[in-house]
Predict the structure.
Amino acid sequence: MPKAYYVVKNNETLIISKKKYKKQDFELLFSDCPAITENNKPDFKNFAEHVFFYNEYCQ
């Protein structure tokens, strides 16, 4: 399992790491998709699922 991801959103590159994937990063990345933020917790093991869901349903 990866320990960090590089994410580009709004032309900004973020490093999302296992140790720092907290509510702040979670809100920053997914705040424009209430379906994710209301129904999920910022758990790093689910990060890939959150990104997949965001790409499929929230853009």
Summary: The radius of gyration is 11 Å.
